[in-house]
Automatic annotation (TrEMBL):
<feature type="domain" description="Putative treble-clef zinc-finger">
    <location>
        <begin position="13"/>
        <end position="54"/>
    </location>
</feature>
<dbReference type="Pfam" id="PF14952">
    <property type="entry name" value="zf-tcix"/>
</dbReference>
<dbReference type="InterPro" id="IPR029269">
    <property type="entry name" value="Zf-tcix"/>
</dbReference>
<protein>
    <recommendedName>
        <fullName>Putative treble-clef zinc-finger domain-containing protein</fullName>
    </recommendedName>
</protein>
<dbReference type="GO" id="GO:0005634">
    <property type="term" value="C:nucleus"/>
</dbReference>
<dbReference type="InterPro" id="IPR026049">
    <property type="entry name" value="C2orf42"/>
</dbReference>
Length: 265
């Protein structure tokens, strides 16, 4: 077989070309490698985020599904512990070059303070107590550098009906799931969920955090959970936390039961 034919046959099974390892500059459209720190177009001044920032901020903030008009982020509150989180609201910012691209945060626009001018707000309790005026806190910065979206958990009607849950609770769960668009339960970390709730002063967006953890004692394994809702907090503290139940706990149970992989955990 001629050398040209061998070479042609060798290249026939390479498959289609992909864009793996390549990203387009949001300003000029030039294709760059994912490891590059700046656009290779010399007339373009865009600086990319370092690759290490994705891993660094992956647990700090997580964007949840909350509608098309605004962006809501679940952010970690460092001084309260690993399982304590709050919410940050950041507006959708249109690119200044008219390309139609949407940027998360103001770093691509060059001025972090632009976030506050366009309506970014931190709803972490400690930040709201410190100042009545909006300020550029660490939680807003973490949200502006967020690369992670929450995982939406599907709620199956069959799972809801099959579980031994009081009928009144089932009705409340279904109302929370259907009254407003979007998923009822979203997972932001291994043991923290964002669950829909009725909007009130403490939960203005209609979302709250629900966390659970496994504690291993000398004799047995205990499962503890905490909900940010008012009904959970006002219930008398009992040694057996299973007595402190709320509709958001049951919503998480149904969401886990609706997913085959999660139901095995």
């Amino acid at each position: 077989m001629p050398r040209e034919d061998k070479r042609a046959n060798f290249l026939t099974d390479l498959g289609r070309a992909t864009m793996r390892g390549v990203r387009k500059c949001p300003k000029c459209g030039t294709l760059n490698g994912t490891r590059g720190f700046s656009c290779k177009n010399k007339s373009c001044d865009v600086i990319f985020k370092e690759a290490g920032e994705k891993k660094k901020h992956s647990t700090e903030a997580c964007r949840i599904t909350a509608g098309a008009d605004t962006q809501i982020y679940s952010v970690r509150v460092r001084d309260k512990g690993p399982d304590y989180r709050g919410f940050v609201q950041i507006p959708l910012i249109q690119s200044v070059d008219g390309s139609g691209d949407i940027f998360i945060g103001a770093e691509p626009l060059g001025d972090p303070m632009l976030l506050l001018q366009m309506g970014a707000r931190c709803y972490v309790e400690s930040c709201q107590r410190k100042s009545q005026q909006p300020s550029l806190c660490s939680h807003i910065r973490a949200a502006s550098q967020c690369y992670k979206d929450a995982t939406s958990l599907t709620l199956k009607n069959s799972a809801l009906n099959s579980l031994p849950i009081p009928q009144s609770i089932k009705t409340d769960i279904w109302q929370l799931a259907t009254d407003t668009p979007g998923p009822l339960v979203q997972r932001v970390s291994k043991n923290i969920m964002v669950v829909k709730c009725k909007p009130e002063a403490l939960h203005q967006f209609g979302f709250l955090h629900f966390s659970f953890q496994q504690v291993r004692n000398k004799e047995e394994i205990e499962y503890k959970y905490y909900c940010g809702c008012r009904s959970f907090k006002i219930q008398p503290a009992a040694r057996d936390v299973s007595f402190r139940k709320c509709v958001h706990l049951y919503a998480c149970v149904v969401a886990f039961a609706s997913d085959h992989n999660l139901s095995q955990v």
